[in-house]
Amino acid sequence: MINFKDISYLKNGTSRQKEAYKVLLELDILELLKKFNPILVGTIPIDIDVESSDLDIICECKNHSELLEIVTKKYGEFSGFHVNTIQSYKNLKTTIIAFEYNTFPIEFFVQNKPSEQQDSYLHMLIEYQILLKENEEFKSEVIALKQQGLKTEPAFAKLLGLEGDPYEALLIYGFEKDYIS
Predict the structure, then answer these.
(1) Between helices 119-133 and 136-147, what is the axis angle to 10°?
(2) What is the structure's pLDDT at 89?
(3) Which of 25, 39, 60, 75 is most solvent-facing, going by the fewest CB within 10 Å?
């Protein structure tokens, strides 16, 4: 099992993973946000990314304005920099900070919830376990569905025959299969 909290696994990965590693180091993101427990999540860590995939970094933070101030000071001048605060579907305040750097769109997802308990981290762990158990054809089908415009969780749900909200269905599936505890 990969330790997704330590990005060193990216150094020996695909060319896109190596580039992601380089960008994260160049921008010093994980060190800058260390106190907010940042974790790179999404499709790049588990090698099902498509050309438009971004670097998704989740953070745990009670005071969103504190993190926003740090990120704005460091990255506020980057192309496409913008901030959006919403109440997520589980009624969690979520601040999304986005900008572009080199070939990557970068997004921070900030919630007052431990990073290891946030849905995007759990989804990634479940998807990773599924990919380990399935064959390369399954992985190729996920990528093909993503290239057709489907988001990751709906792609997995479709291929696994999961019904209802794909985000919730994937979590339930993961808990039932004991992929996460």
Answers:
(1) 130
(2) 65
(3) 25
pLDDT at 36: 98
Residue bearing tokens 């993190």: 67
Task: State the DSSP H helix or E strand holding residue 167, giving kind and residue range, or none if neither.
Answer: helix 166-176
Consecutive sets of 10 residues in the chain, 181 residues long: mean pLDDT of each? 95 96 97 98 98 96 96 98 88 94 95 96 98 97 97 98 97 94 69
Q: 59: number of CA atoms within 13 Å, CB side?
A: 28
Domains in the chain, start-ordered, CATH in brackets?
A: 7-117 (3.30.460.10), 120-176 (no CATH)
Q: How far is residue 4's CA from residue 9's CA, in Å, rounded to a whole number? A: 8
> In the chain, what are the helix, strand and coil shares in percent, each to the nearest 5?
50, 20, 35
